[in-house]
Amino acid sequence: MRFLIALSLLATAVSAPAVIVNGTPDEETPSFMSYVGSLNRASGIYLGEYNGAYWVLTAEHVGYSNTFEIGGEIYSGISGSGRQVGLYDLYLFQIEVAPGSTLAGLSPLSIATTAFSGSNQSLYMVGNGGSGQVAKYDPVTTELLGYSYDKGGRELNWGLGYGEADDYDYRGVMTRMIRSDFSNDQGNAAGVFGDSGGGYFRYIDDKWVLVGLIVANEQQMRDKAALFGDYTLAIDLGTYSSTIYGMIPEPGTVGLLFTVAVAGGVWTWNGHRRNRRRVS
Q1: To the nearest 10°, the Cα dihedral for 66, 277, 215, 187?
Q2: CA angle 108, 34, 72 (to 5 degrees)
Q3: Burial, 115: exposed, middle or buried (Cβ in 10 Å; 0-12, 13-18, 19+)?
């Protein structure tokens, strides 16, 4: 089924907030967090080293940056290395990584190589979006409606989501996307302003795999709150991984498995941010 959508992009100019509102799950911090950083007040995913070059994947509407901050360290972008992946809201660029730095010791990230399938499939969202979530209640019934957040703040966070893939007319291009609805019943997360360029991850065959890149969301209260019923969209990386691989050198001695299905979008966790728009 195909959908025509006018999304809120979660980026800097036209974007949406952070990923997790209402807190990070009470679990040990997953290892995929080591690959998620920030740029242009949005998010980006470090893919790893390919024959001496170090690559970052983000949303095209977030774009290139002279700096990429991750794990408390700042890496310089390499001018002229940026490139859009086809006509999609996906963007690759290189960064300088010095020997002995944190990223130099990380193995390449696995990106999904097959399209996302099934419905209501559990996944984890992560992004560097809005911060300071506050529960929002109906003034009359006192029912919990969702969470408000600070659009100007930034906080790297992660949370649970449930995805289902379909084709969307996104920015005038038919794109395979993974949609995750923000629901109080399931206790999941939502993307918000600043989450664009963040990722959807799943644990497959004993490793974390990047299956989606967050790019947009649908919010009832744009840039103000993530309400139940909102949803976050990420580009299904498993559908486009071959194109991504064709744009960066294949790793030499290091085996690289890409299992990414990312949809850059605005999201909020358990107070999830929603609103189809750039999440940067």
Answers
A1: 120
A2: 125
A3: middle
Token digits of residue 102? 């944190």
- Is 3.30.1490.190 the CATH classification of the domain at 2-31+106-264? no
* 68-122 pLDDT tens trace: 999 999 999 999 999 999 999 999 999 999 999 999 999 999 999 999 998 889 9
Question: Global pTM?
Answer: 0.82
- Tokens representing residue 278 in the block: 């750039």
Which tokens go with 262?
């990312």
DSSP β-bridge partners for residue 48: 55
Is residue 213 packed enough to be buried (19+ CB in 10 Å), middle (13-18) or exposed (0-12)? buried
Nearest to 232 by CA among 172, 173, 158: 158
